[in-house]
Recover the amino acids of this structure.
């Protein structure tokens, strides 16, 4: 079974945080935190439709300029989410440059500032020299984005400033048994995406699609219902990826993280310090590797990936991973 979501950290665990999640078969991607991304492939970055920023310390947001520069002549808009104060951060970034030669470009940025009970957003258009448009407001109850098959949720954490944690969930996974399609005399093609969309939307079994026939090389087609296609499909629970960046180890933070990451297939969690330096971690508002592992165990995730290590452990990187894994395995 090929997963729909493919996640990778852009940088090493000692460098700036930036998690790239590609949505396979859709030619688009999501980005969680925007640290230094200059070394990443531009063709990959151009797939990004949404970016989710935990907080705007420089190592989590410095790559915003790189992203904007790369996307300036792109028609597709970029939507970015961040914590309280984020609209001013984005406006300040865009206001730091002169845009008189880009007024013909179609690109725009919609920035959304996530508060505990509401989301404030503004759009900045290249053709208007990225001047902020009127602010819009909508209620927030945990969900940032949701479509027929994906959902992105957020939780507020304490890093001495507000910091957001995120979870990306696939509602359920559809795997097509191609050999069974062939046995039915049906061709493989773009119609499969339409079929998956219909299933994700919750269409009834008598919903019909135009399907090309194998014999006619795709030239002939017939209408087939979703019920007729059931034996060619395998439905399984969807993937879940959770992302937690800088935060303190407090009872409230821990409770929110465990709830957000519960049952995740892949849990990306910061682990700034070793447990022996726990006091330093508390002073800096970070987790230790042991704390990250403990949170992963409590959330019953399937796999833990720690990152964002203090440079002081460059010669002890194996120890950071070991400490986190031992706590995770209990």
């Amino acid at each position: 079974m090929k997963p729909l979501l493919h996640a990778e950290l852009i940088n090493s665990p000692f460098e700036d945080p930036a998690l790239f999640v590609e949505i396979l078969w859709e030619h688009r991607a999501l980005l969680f935190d925007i640290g230094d991304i200059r070394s990443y492939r531009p063709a990959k970055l151009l797939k990004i439709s949404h970016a989710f920023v935990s907080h705007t310390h420089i190592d989590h947001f410095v790559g915003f300029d790189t992203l904007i520069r790369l996307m300036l002549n792109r028609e597709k808009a970029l939507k970015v989410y961040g914590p309280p104060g984020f609209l001013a951060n984005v406006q300040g970034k865009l206001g730091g440059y002169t845009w008189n030669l880009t007024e013909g470009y179609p690109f725009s940025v919609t920035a959304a500032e996530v508060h505990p009970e509401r989301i404030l957003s503004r759009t900045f258009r290249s053709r208007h020299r990225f001047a902020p448009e009127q602010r819009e407001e909508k209620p927030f109850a945990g969900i940032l984005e949701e479509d027929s098959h994906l959902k992105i949720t957020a939780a507020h954490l304490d890093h001495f400033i507000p910091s957001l944690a995120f979870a990306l969930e696939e509602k359920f996974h559809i795997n097509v048994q191609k050999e069974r399609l062939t046995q039915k005399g049906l061709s493989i093609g773009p119609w499969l995406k339409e079929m998956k969309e219909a299933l994700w939307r919750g269409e009834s079994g008598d919903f019909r699609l135009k399907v090309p026939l194998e014999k006619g090389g795709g030239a002939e087609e017939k209408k087939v219902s979703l019920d007729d296609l059931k034996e060619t499909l395998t439905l399984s629970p969807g993937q879940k990826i959770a992302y937690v960046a800088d935060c303190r180890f407090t009872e409230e933070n821990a409770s929110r993280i465990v709830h957000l990451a519960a049952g995740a297939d892949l849990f990306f969690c910061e682990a700034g310090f070793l447990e022996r330096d726990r006091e330093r971690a508390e002073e800096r508002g970070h987790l230790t590797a042991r704390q990250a592992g403990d949170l992963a165990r409590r959330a019953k995730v399937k796999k833990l990936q720690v990152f964002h290590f203090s440079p002081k452990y460059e010669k002890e990187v194996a120890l950071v991973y070991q400490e986190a894994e031992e706590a995770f395995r209990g």
Remarks:
- The CA atoms of residues 289 and 320 lie 6 Å apart.
- The two ends are 30 Å apart (CA to CA).
- Residues 247-330 form one domain.
- The chain has a mean pLDDT of 92.
